[in-house]
Each structure stands twice: as structure tokens, then as C-alpha cells.
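Archive maintenance. Older records in this collection stored only the sequence; we are now back-filling the structure field for every entry so that each record is complete. The fields below show one back-filled record exactly as it appears after the update. Entries are processed alphabetically, and VWA domain-containing protein is next in the queue.

ARCHIVE ENTRY
Title: VWA domain-containing protein
Organism field: Aequorivita iocasae
Length field: 347
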Amino acid sequence: MYQLEQPIYFYILFAIPVIVVVFLLLLVWKRKVQKRFVDKELLKKLSPNRSLFKSVLKVLLLCLAVACLSFALVNPKIGTKLETVKREGVDIVFALDVSKSMLAEDIAPNRLEKAKQLIIQVINGLAGDRIGIIGYAGSAFPQVPITSDFSSAKLFLNGMNTDMVSSQGTAITQAIEMAQTFYDDEEQTNRVLFIISDGEDHEGNVSEYAEEAAEKGIRIFTIGVGTLEGGPIPIKENGVLQYYKRDQNNEQVITRLSEETLKEIANTANGDYIDGTNTKVVVDQVKAILNGMDKKEFEAKQFTDFKDQFQWFLAGALFLLVLDVFLLERQTAWLKKLNLFNEREKQ
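Back-filled structure field:
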């Protein structure tokens, strides 16, 4: 198990292709200048030990030093001690609506991104709980099984988009049905399902599925994202607006938040409806809901002792830089024998 303390410093690696390009441009420029002012045979006599291989080697060492420096600043940490720890929490499943209507920008930046932000902020406030994530549109699909690894869950969450499901619609019923298979601990008395959606275009008898989930001890809370006034659905390509979605009559589709549907689901499954407009209010409400539930104690194995590894990369970077400084660009005897890059002087 490992951790990256400051992954932002990986951006330093972009300096490597810059160094290579500058070196190649400098090499081309030198060749042009030499051809213009110095005869090729005369240049060989004036600098018989000039080595292209040594120049390439020095640039390679510099690039490796930059890579080592980048990893040193990132400071990877390796887990050295695996312990079994006891945690108390609730099993929580998030069902995220990824239908096209979630692209509407009536709530900034759009409904889908707002929903992701809400889930991430809720996860950040969790402690000993376990979470799972389901995505759904015309059909439902499991994105993250029940886990206590919040970092991985957030990583998969950020990758969710409206292109993950080809069939459109809002199959809330399938999401509720799939959520029932996520709770793998029969002794867990408190099971929570948060449905984050605009509630539009739902299919099937939602109340029936919500009631069935309630009978299995699952409480459903719905979080509505969007506005009652609604907005058009932008279709973008590479971030550029192409057009707004239209119906069969070529009229612009306006998608609106369906609070009644979401409230009906929550009320049927002993939950509550939460307005997703204000992130802080949502997080506070969710926190209050979870704090009012009985926590189940369970054991989990995790690394508890992480040791810094930056010193190895820093030492490597310093060694390579020192080696680059003392490495001369002229040929050595054994390199002449190898005749790399066809550098041997023609007789």
C-alpha cells in the first residue's frame, strides 16, 4: 500500500519533453552554424574528440534527475504495518443519476457536476462508514462496491458521465433494486441509500420498489439537483456547445426538477427529501441523519504506519546531477573503440 503526499508535483515531469526539444533544437542550430562557418574536415581536426553520444547521455541524466526530483517532491509513502482496526459506521450507497437531463446548467456548473460535489463533500465528512456507488440512466450499473476505501471511491466517482449508459431515461427502480444487493453484512441494522437525481423521466412503479427496500431495512433519502424552472440540455463536444437537445417535434427540451417523485420515494422508504441547492446544508443534513443512527462495529485491515520515501529519489537526483556535471562531452578511449553514432574519423 502506498500514498502520494503531493501528487501535484508530477507536473514537473512536463519539463522533460521541454528539455529534449530544446536539446534537439540546439543540436540542429549547431550543425547549421558549423556548416556555414567551418569546413567539416577542418572541424574534425579542431575537435577530434567531440562526442555526440556524451551529449545525449548528459541530457538523459538531466531528464532522469528531473524525474527523480519530481518523485521526491511528491513524496511517495509506503505502508509498512498492517493492522486490524475496529470501526463503527453505517453502510451507505449513493445512486447517481447520469441521464442526459443531468447536463442541464440550471444549477452551476451543471446538475451532474453538482451531484458529484455533493457526494464528495458527504464522503469527506464520513469516518468509520462504508460506501458504495451506483450509476443509472436507462439502466443501472454498479460503479463502486461497498468499501471503506474513500479515495478510490472518489476517483471512480469523478470518472462518471452521461455516456456511461447508452439507453436513456431514469431507471430509479433499477437503482433501488441493485442497491439491495450491495449490503453484504446481514448484521448491519442501518442501511442507507441516497438517490441523487433531478427525478425526471422515471420508469416503473417507484413506490413499490421503495417499499420493498424499506421492508429489507433500507432507508432511502433523495437529494434533488436542479430547479423547478428547469433549463435546456446542452450537447457539447470537447467542451464546446454543439446544440440543445430537441424532441421528436424539433422543439427544445426543457428539463425540470421533479420534487414530487423524489419526495414520494423518500416518504415510502422511511427517509426524507433534501434540496441539493446548498452544498453545506446538504452535508449538515446528511451528517445529522447518520449521527442519529446506530453504528455497527466491524473490523477492517488497513496500513497504519506509512514511511516517507522521498529521500531515495532526492539522493538519486543529486547523484545524477553531480554525474552530469563531471561527465565531459569529449570522447574517451573505450568510447572511440565502440564508434557510437558513427563518430570514428574516416581515414
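Update note: The first strand starts at residue 2 and ends at 4. The chain has eleven helices and 13 strands.
Entry marked complete.
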